[in-house]
Amino acid sequence: MKSEKISEAVVRRLPVYLRYLNELHKREVATVSSQELGQKLDLNPAQIRKDLAYFGDFGRKGIGYDVSYLIEKIRQILKIDQQINVALVGAGNLGQALSNYNAYLKDNMKIVAIFDSSEAKVGKQINTLTVQPMDELGRMVEEHRIRIGIITVPDFEAQRVADTMIEAGIEAILNFAPTILKAPPHIRIHATDFTTDLLSLAYYLEGGKDDDNE
Amino acid sequence: MKSEKISEAVVRRLPVYLRYLNELHKREVATVSSQELGQKLDLNPAQIRKDLAYFGDFGRKGIGYDVSYLIEKIRQILKIDQQINVALVGAGNLGQALSNYNAYLKDNMKIVAIFDSSEAKVGKQINTLTVQPMDELGRMVEEHRIRIGIITVPDFEAQRVADTMIEAGIEAILNFAPTILKAPPHIRIHATDFTTDLLSLAYYLEGGKDDDNE
């Protein structure tokens, strides 16, 4: 596995493949071609073959990819062949919405703790979790070996929350606050910005449609 | 403007540039270099120069980019130099959270209507909007010239909502439901899948860190 050269774009496509492969697996489909993957996921089949070739020689000409094998491989590559524990800070509407996704994350990852700095929210029940105060974060991260943090607080609180997470030993952060976070280089931060998704969609309105059919 | 060849990856970076440029503009910074943009946004400066060169010759050697001019240009390219109206379907936690982002979208885009199929939610006030029943969607899309739809309903309802939106004349959809939607080719659909973001983050845990410093 030549993991040194994989671009973020490729890494971000792997869970997309995984989701559809899981769907196929549920429907008891045994093999899938890059053509079918491409059509379903709106990606170029050559791109898909190239992406998957980074990780080894999975496909067989004329047959396609073995669904179960590919699921297993992608899970290994993404390092989600063991459950990864996640903490979420910010028990507002967005935090509550995200905590519902535990079901979709399946056995790959799990939000195991939710925190909030507001006394009004501490103690509140969200699905199976009870909102905890921020000063419990360090202990929980250690106790549950939490490695990833999700930030769903307002923008002006996000940096402080990130600092607390990093101090507690969290290694990667998914930031939903619409602000750019500072962190040491060994901490991986991904920003999920809804406004970015929405604004980029405007480009494709009227006239600009379908211009990336390579 | 050679808009035929711009890849989705580039289009998706433009709002990221725009957000930081707006921030610079607010701080009354007049010019910015690709180096600074790269450092701040964790992107390769050469990549940034290449991205912006698609749209014309903006930068000046040794001086950098004029912040106001670049903001104006990116807004034009993304076609958000006029307000684009957006409808949201699904007034649950996620829908409520997203409706708070109107403030961040500024004058570029606006969620002007929220719909839900549940009678319990219809009539509810979310910020300045009142949740409307689904059968009002067609009329509202026409009346307010709504061009983009956001789907924040559970996965099993998402396709039906998408069909209704498309029938009403909506041209592009941002889908938050963790399912793949079918749509005619002239309809642009972007999926914003939180689980994808989270799973791809796992790749960078332990050992896999910082391997894309080209």
TrEMBL record, chains A, B:
InterPro entries cross-referenced by the UniProt entry: CoA-bd, NAD(P)-bd_dom_sf, Rex_actinobacterial-type, Rex_DNA-bd_C_dom, Tscrpt_rep_Rex, WH-like_DNA-bd_sf, WH_DNA-bd_sf
The keyword Cell inner membrane is assigned to this record: no
Domain of life: Bacteria
Keyword tRNA processing included in the entry's annotation: no
Record feature DNA-binding region, as residue ranges: 16-55
Domain CoA-binding: 79-180
Main localization, broad class: cytoplasm
Swiss-Prot/TrEMBL keywords: Cytoplasm, DNA-binding, NAD, Repressor, Transcription, Transcription regulation
Binding site for NAD(+): G90, A91, G92, N93, L94, G95
Subcellular location: Cytoplasm
Family: Belongs to the transcriptional regulatory Rex family.
Quaternary structure and partners: Homodimer.
The protein's role, per its UniProt record: Modulates transcription in response to changes in cellular NADH/NAD(+) redox state.
Name of protein: Redox-sensing transcriptional repressor Rex
